[in-house]
């Protein structure tokens, strides 16, 4: 039974005839595409035809990139020493000299990356351990609560606080070609947005690496954070456990077969957790660094599309199937019990 | 339990019963928040979301900002709480208005103006014409010298005619000036909600009359919310007040109905919840192991060597939170929204407006439109539902002479007109019974015509017909009736009315001829109620043959009879009748028994046949719906033959060779059992043949069958697609609905009268026809329509579209949340199983609430097939009935698709954004845009018809995603400052997007095309055929046909064998209205039986699984 308030409804309802509109009558003009063989096959062929050239283009761009990758973490440790102890000791000489051969001509700018493998910058405990507010504004120096366990030392706030900053990568590289020093441009390696906004120009490092445990690199307390570009690059956390970060640029061409001598200060402890450290020199093209995945992906997918299109054409020819055939409409056949 | 009401007693009554303050409010200002929250949190989904939201407050484990869950959660709660509050506020306002209305009432012996809410039980209340009755009153006085008054009860039962109410005999003749001094005692039952019964006693205290106990019935009451009409004033004693009135007791929110689709979604949600728990457990264990073996080596993570006691729980809980998005918080909101729109579409539909009365269809229940598409059984009332309930007197048989057989209208039959002119006594008596034996109220209109207000359409038809034959019922003056016959006025005084009940199936009046002073008993009723009461000498064979013949034509028959009464006999009986009338216990039964004592030795005068025309389009509608695999049961109070005839003429059962009617009857348990077993046997045999078998059962046998042979009857119900149940009571109708529901069928009950209300409320879907029997059914129903034929459109168009749309929407909602959740899981595998969220809080929230919700909401405009095609091929409804578009296997498809898409997006993104590009914020946006691109194409691929709105929503949403992210990227304070600009400048970003789209959609498209072309469903074929244009199939287009009865003039042979063989063989083989098939003779058209069998066998299979 309905309640009493509805009593006046029927009369008012009668007077209120629904207004006609195409929307209320669900009669909006509509296009009803259906999957005809022509449409589907054309789509696949079209996609294939577009994708393969793009794939080839990307692949060739990726191939044009000249890349030198040198893993140095193992070779830069005396083989007779315990690795972790060696790297943690203050007294050991961690200088290490490597020579790299340029396979092809590398046009400037040549980007210098360091690559860390098996380093979980995306670990939850790590990612969360930073205070963006503190980095931006000197007044927020005390906002260190998310930074545990690297928030304070002797109850004074650490700037920049948190595990991310604390574990700053601190290997350094010096380059020379046949005795001539190659200058490494370390300006503008960080994002402009970080320099201009995320990291304050009035925020200076304080109490950094003063605790009992020393993580990674140290910072010059006289330079504001916004100009500590290595820190900025490091603090853009990587999403994958294997990542490259920009170290600097060499602003001159490197000729083929030239030998580059790299003097590495091997300070960073990647041994404790079985990580790998690599030095990467790479040129760049419109697609970025060397990465053949996109090119290969496009070619594969394009090829598959063409293959599917061919299959459908063949199927269509062998077993044509009339559309909307009433004979398939018999409600008796193929009992719908499947 | 009894309630004693002391009339006009200012001391006693105050404390015991509540005052007349009406409160429909669910909440008060103070309990609103707790009560509303409690109600909302009694739902599992909400509890789940609350738990998740609470867990997120623990910053150690939360992957994202708690706001991302609290925001939507609070929004959802706020929206539904606001809606509740608004409704409640409106209820409060209307209550307030009613409570503060000024009424005249007696206070301390003085008539005063008081507010309606201050009326107390026992107060005397005065009403004037057109006043609304403020509480339940027992009448004690009216302006009418006879003590009559008229009320309109539309608000109570929906019936629009005027009802007469009379003051109790004890109060008769009390002077107007003394009325407010009346003292007395009314003994009445405790408040209940039965608006048709009020069994009480009144005793007035001296000096008012003697101490006699006076019976009070519903006829002596004025119930709350009725209106006083045609009466200058009336006054009464308040017996029930406030929320204890009859109306107040009937109030209350009916139980919310849950659709099959909702139930399925709940089930799937449960499955996803279990899946989520498994994932959480596996990842939690893996995370703890990884932490202990690997993470402790990572010096830069600085895991403490000894953590707190709950350390082991932290990682599983983090994953629980990370995976909580698997169950989309938006699904409830989206579903509520689209369901509201489905209901609006029904309200708006111009094609469902009854042009005669311009009544649009109305969906009172906005939540169950999908169920319309899944109906398996329709239980329909006959009178007023299939027929127009516009009774017209057509033929009669008076003492063996048939009138009206030749021209089909007795009123125009020369013979009858002549017989009236010659004052043939039988005919005159017949007309007198027609004119008097009723409860009709004639109202003189300004222009001299007379308007008859009748509760029963039959009576109205008879009175009209009598008037047409010069026996005009002119005036009703209290108990005195004025009959104008050939310009002379005859007066009768009605002494007693032996009312019609559905059990007695007859009504009688005792009248006194005012001239001769003779007493007569005039009776009319169903043949089986009247003919057995015939006087012993009279031959009733002619009459039963007439009844038989008329009912074969589908006419309603009434037998008219009379008897002259002796004064003594009447006096003696009258005492008994009074006593029975004042009985407090079993009053109905006792009255019936007393009536029985008078209604015997009747002289049968004749049989009147009344036509109730079929509504327009009924046969076509039933035929179409039967083709759609819906089974019909007809439940009617009418007699068997009439019911069968109507059933045949509206395609309920096929005519002979295909159709077969099996009768179940019998008066005793054994007879019924045997008959039932025979029918079952026949059913089992014929169920393998493409035969159209229906069983017919009457109320009596049904009672026995339901009580003693429940199992056998259940089997019968399962086997039989069609049934005709005649002579059933309202409660039996409800029982039958319950029976079918217990067989797990989706039932739809359709009816128009008060006797259908219970069945309508009982069924999964109740449809009411806003018809002539009032709006009672329409108000109780979930849907109300103007005419039966709109049912076709309601089910095939609205029900089907709603089901399809909800099926897509709900599965898609899971798809998109699973997609993002899988990606989070994959990401956690490469982030040291530590529970890092790849996405930031804003993106996650916007993904669920905004980016993916808008395009899919526009899906409410999607139409897979045009309405015309569906109407031509109603069989297509089978896909909805059997739940082919939303079930675990289709859901598994969507689940697989989201897994596949998650892999595609994730693998492509981490490879193309590897090494120097693998920056967290960037990768997160790349992955998110990948998901958005994919979902746009998924929606596009699944959309069947694109209107401009869909294009806007799908592609506009994609554009909106970029615009929003550009805006967010332009805000220096946001975490993703400049990210989107950086990405959009990179060619590799766009190349990655296209790769994701093609790699993700290519296989889906190929698979879909393959299925579409080589394993097409019927829907696909019809879509293809629709595209080709032209006439789709030669199979029957159902053309509207003119009505049956007008075409048929020749009567049927009355030689219908009375064989009571279980197989009612020669069913209508020679009946002209049997050939009412619309298809040509050559058309191969036996599919609908087999189809319906298939569908039900499939449905069975589904249920078995």
UniProtKB/TrEMBL annotation, chain A:
It is found in: Membrane. It comes from the Eukaryota. It holds the Pfam family CDC50. Keywords: Membrane, Transmembrane, Transmembrane helix. PANTHER family: ALA-INTERACTING SUBUNIT, CELL CYCLE CONTROL PROTEIN 50. Belongs to the CDC50/LEM3 family. This is ALA-interacting subunit. It comes from Coffea canephora.
UniProtKB/TrEMBL annotation, chain B:
It catalyses: ATP + H2O + phospholipidSide 1 = ADP + phosphate + phospholipidSide 2. CDD domains: P-type_ATPase_APLT. The keyword ATP-binding applies. SUPFAM superfamilies: Calcium ATPase, transduction domain A, Calcium ATPase, transmembrane domain M, HAD-like, Metal cation-transporting ATPase, ATP-binding domain N. Residues 778-1017 form the P-type ATPase C-terminal domain. This is Phospholipid-transporting ATPase. The chain crosses the membrane at residues 44-61, 268-290, 818-838, 844-861, 894-913, 925-941, 948-968, 988-1010. It is found in: Endomembrane system; Membrane. Residues 100-162 form the P-type ATPase A domain. It is an enzyme of class 7 (translocase). Its EC number is 7.6.2.1. It is a multi-pass membrane protein. Residues 5-70 form the P-type ATPase N-terminal domain. Keywords: ATP-binding, Magnesium, Membrane, Metal-binding, Nucleotide-binding, Translocase, Transmembrane, Transmembrane helix. It comes from the Eukaryota. Belongs to the cation transport ATPase (P-type) (TC 3.A.3) family. Type IV subfamily. It holds the Pfam family E1-E2_ATPase. The gene is LOC113714498. Its main location: membrane.
